[in-house]
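Hi Prof. W.,

I finally got the Acetolactate synthase prediction working! I wasn't sure whether to trim anything, so I left the full sequence exactly as given:
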Amino acid sequence: MSAQTPEVRSTEQLREKWLKPEVITGSEILLRSLLLEGVECVFGYPGGAVLYIYDAMYGFKDFNHVLTRHEQGAIHAADGYARASGKVGVCIATSGPGATNLVTGIATAYMDSVPLVVITGNVATTLIGTDAFQEADITGITMPITKHSYLVRDVKDLPRVIHEAFHIASTGRKGPVLIDIPKDVSAATTLFQPEERIQLRGYNPRTVPNKLQLDKLARAIEEAERPMILAGGGVIYSGAHEGLYEFVNKTGIPITTTLLGLGAFPTGNDLWTGMPGMHGTYTSNHGIQQSDLLINIGARFDDRVTGKLDGFAPHAKIVHIDIDPAEIGKNVPTDIPIVGDVKTVLEMLNPLVPYAAKADAWRNQIRKWKAEYPFRYVDSDTVLKPQWVIEMLNDTTKGEAIVTTDVGQHQMWAAQYYKFNQPRSWITSGGLGTMGFGFPSAIGAQMAHPDRLVISINGDGGMQMCSQELAICAINNIPVKIVVINNQVLGMVRQWQELIYDNRYSHIDLAGSPEFVKLAEAYGVKGLRATTKEEAQRAWAEAMETPGPVLVEFVVEKGENVYPMVTQGSTIDQMLMGDA
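And this is what came out:
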């Protein structure tokens, strides 16, 4: 056995090195503390207020930092990393405009319950409140969109604050936590003593449910004739997909998964009915509306799922399982509230629940609807249809890729036509609907899983919002396969203007966009273009065979709409089914 080289050290050796008590700067404390929290990579962009922090990175080989080309790219990449890995994502930006450029990404993570630790610099403590150069009250600005915020005024508090931030971000209902570090605090020195205990008064997320409520649910299942399960992102975030699979198989209850819940349950299972809501399946929407027992597991009754609230699930007894008690009863009155971590709830619930024996006719009805009302579109041999493109991606990858999307029509087509069988394989902005999210989030997902295929599906509008991150794919050889569904228009806005605003098309023409192949090549990324099925198959095969990042532009039918569709003010069973 050869001797271990100095560069190859065990995790234990590194931790011993990082834990070594010594007098160091706040910046060095930050880097060491992040490593002790298990952080594998940080996405960021330097500036004046964080220069001490970036100076501490100089020569620090144990610390992995990815320089993005915009702060929004950094936080979306950290978000994608967190969603794909289940770990806490981390990003760093400077004060003022650097910090405010993170706001959209913070709100994106907050709406979708994604654990992030967001580190910002600020002006020196002596200048706070004086309107100093590049000063912004980022803790005040982000208060409504963070789970918690810290303004660190004493370097001695840094180890405790960082440890608490990771704990808060990753427990209970997960979410972003912001740490604002003034420049003089990052420069100050103190004896580094890592914090090992967490003592947070008033913060004790409830993870174990009330046993009496579980018994009520078991009895309700026994009596139900038309039960339905609505499963959301909480199942994935808690690692409860195996428990959910057991629950469905044991009870025999049909299940629909929300946009953020895709991958929580195998899509090929006979009891899975597809996605519910505005662009959901006929089976899911009619199943919810006709159910007599609706079991919500880790979803928040978003308006895109419920449609018209006073007409939602009118015949159902409502059960809501959620880690956040504030969500229960917020939108939909709840008959059986169950507060707790979804994984823990299902582990306790599964031994108690019976098979839904009275629901045989209901299961047959669900199967009949699935057979009669699948997703449909009118295909073409002359024009490339976006639905066909997604089906091709699914067929060639056998549904095994990690797929990220931007926001718009392509997002809905990807949710409808790509079949997910694993959790954390579907990454999209659900609650906030953030254009520009798709591509940088794929970079983060690829960093989390360097050996998996990551596909970033984007519209021609959203792709232009963070296209500058093509640079870091080229420089770092991050092998994301970037798909641009180019219909030369803001597609979802055009669809609404067509169907709801009587064809009054206002400011949606994107025909002046760049040639995406040339744009990719300008950054050093291979670019391919397809306008027909034959070209699409050939270009995608070449992309799959090419090591490293590739951008493939699919020029598709401009006037294609996403169907089914439930318009605002309608109940979810009042569906526009489309030309097909």
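The chain is about 35% helix and 15% strand. Does that look reasonable to you?

Thanks,
D.
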